[in-house]
Specification:
CATH topology: Nuclear Transport Factor 2, Chain: A
Strand content: 25-35%
Order of helices and strands: HEEHHEEEH
CATH architecture: Roll
CATH class: Alpha Beta
Shape: globular
Structural class: alpha+beta
Number of helices: 4
Number of domains: 1
């Protein structure tokens, strides 16, 4: 299945995220098609709701789960909320499916996103690593330094 002009018009073209400048032309690098959709989903997940003054409903509350327990109830709640946020903020996708994996890596929750771009018969997917913080047995350098300076 080829990518034609109608697909490009529907999916749009926008500035690459994070913003990059083409050193040859001096212009901002743009993305279009499915890559534009993928970057939009990433922005939804990385933007806290109310962060954008003119679009307070844009984004997700994923960062609000950083200190939450990673039990089945919380993971299911978070998955449903992220699914709704993507469906509400990205009209170019449908049939969004979220799967969570909190067991593969300590301190990291992997969010597996699976979706279809409207009007195409191709499933797209991406993995979003959501860092929950350091493991209790690990110490940061700042903590070790402070520990050495304690006066009893």
């Amino acid at each position: 299945m080829g990518f034609d002009m109608a697909d490009e018009i529907f999916l749009g073209t926008g500035m690459k995220f994070p913003p990059q400048v083409n050193p040859t032309t001096g212009r901002f690098v743009c993305v279009s098609g499915r890559e534009s959709v993928k970057e939009s989903i990433y922005l939804i997940l990385m933007t806290q709701k109310t962060e954008r003054f003119m679009r307070p409903d844009f984004g997700s509350n994923a960062t609000g789960y950083v200190f939450a327990q990673t039990d089945a109830t919380m993971l299911n709640l978070m998955a449903r909320e992220i699914e709704g946020d993507i469906m509400r903020n990205e009209p170019r996708v449908e049939d969004v499916r979220i799967r969570m994996d909190a067991d593969s890596r300590p301190g990291c929750l992997f969010i597996y996103l699976d979706y279809m771009v409207r009007g195409e018969n191709v499933r797209e997917n991406m993995v979003f690593p959501f860092y929950l913080g350091e493991e209790p047995e690990e110490k940061s350098e700042a903590y070790e330094t402070m520990e050495d300076d304690i006066i009893e």
